[in-house]
Amino acid sequence: MARKSRHATAKRAAKPRRRPVAARPAPKGAKLVGSNWRDQLDAWKLHHKASAKDAWRRMLKSPIATAMTVIVIAIALALPAGLSVLLTNAQAATAGWDGNVHLSVFLHQETSERTQRQLAQQWVGKKGIDRVEVITAAEALTEFRELSGFGEALDALPENPLPPVLVVYPTSKQADDLEALSAELGKIREVELVQLDVQWVKRLRAMMETVGRIVSALTLALAAAVMLVVVNTIRLSIESRRDEIVVVKIVGGTDGFVRRPFLYTGFGYGLLGGILSVILVQIAFLWVGQPVDELILLYESQFVLMGIGFKNATVIPLFAGMLGLLGAWLAVSRHIQDVDPYLL
């Protein structure tokens, strides 16, 4: 038994031990050996060109899926784009409204027409006053008779009940400046009442500011939605081409080499969606253009409804393309690492 034990021990000692096999590092991609920077630049350009062609070819190869993705992106972008154009038209239509802001200065009834005109000449030189319009008591009565339709009742009055008025047009349209000018004019001895109504100007500006911020928030939200659509589409594309990516990595393809076709695909989705959104917005404005023009004619306004314009028609597709490119980058950066040929 002792002899057998010594023999087994010597046999185990003579047998070589196995060393643990180190994990094989993931390939970092092929390298260009013995090539100058011009050759590398030419290769980089050729691969970008080939990647762009491959992206468009694959998009055209599946027209239904491509059309659905593009339509979703277009609808998501058309809403903020249309609201932005509407806001621009509203701002243009109301641009001159605050130019009609004025102060109606009512003088005492016994103020003569001569004194009224002297006050007008003095106030024109005051700081903050652009011009002053004189409305005498007789002119006020004539205008009131024409607009009110109570001509016979006014003729029965023993004297003119309307006071002389000076209409003051200020240089500043700010509410604080208007209130300060109103208080200053109200201290003059001949002035009985200064009427100032700037609340509607404040409401108009506050409304425009609110709508502008709503459009901005909606644009950010829908831009994020466009990116999520592209991320999901590119993720599905990566899964469908997993075997192809594995082969490319085995032969030495880098992550950048694999990534470029997907980036062009994302940019293409965004660009096509942006172009379609511009077309949708322009069609919508052409559809509502006729009734809006009729409404403008009824108000005898010179305002002309503006469409989306060349600048927006250029910026929106490029912006959508950048969103698609960013979404594709996020998707590829997240999922390309999962495709490792040595882990399959």
Provide an overview of this structure.
The chain is an alpha+beta fold. The chain folds into two domains: 194 residues, no CATH class; 96 residues, Alpha-Beta Plaits (2-Layer Sandwich), CATH 3.30.70.3040. 67% of the residues lie in helices and 7% in strands. The protein is built from eleven helices and four strands; from the N terminus they run αααβαβααβαβαααα. It has a four-stranded antiparallel beta sheet with strand order 2-3-1-4. α8 runs antiparallel to α10, α8 packs across α11 and α10 runs antiparallel to α11.
Strand content: 5-15%
SSE-based structural type: alpha+beta
The amount of helix comes to: 55-70%
How does the overall form come out from the CA principal axes? elongated
Number of helices: 11
**Number of DSSP strands?**
4
User: How many structural domains can be distinguished in the coordinates?
Assistant: 2
What's the Cα radius of gyration? 39 Å
**Strand line-up across the major sheet:** 2-3-1-4
Mean pLDDT: 78
Low-confidence stretches: 1-5, 7-11, 18-24
Write down the secondary-structure element order: HHHEHEHHEHEHHHH
List the helices and strands and how they pair.
Layout: H1 2-14, H2 37-61, H3 63-93, E1 103-107, H4 113-124, E2 129-135, H5 137-148, H6 151-155, E3 165-170, H7 175-186, E4 191-195, H8 199-240, H9 242-250, H10 255-298, H11 309-335
Antiparallel strand pairs: 1-3, 1-4, 2-3
Helix pairs in contact: 2-10, 3-8, 3-10, 8-10, 8-11, 10-11
Overview features:
344 residues, Alpha-Beta Plaits, 11 helices, disordered N terminus, alpha+beta, elongated, 4-stranded antiparallel β-sheet, 2 domains
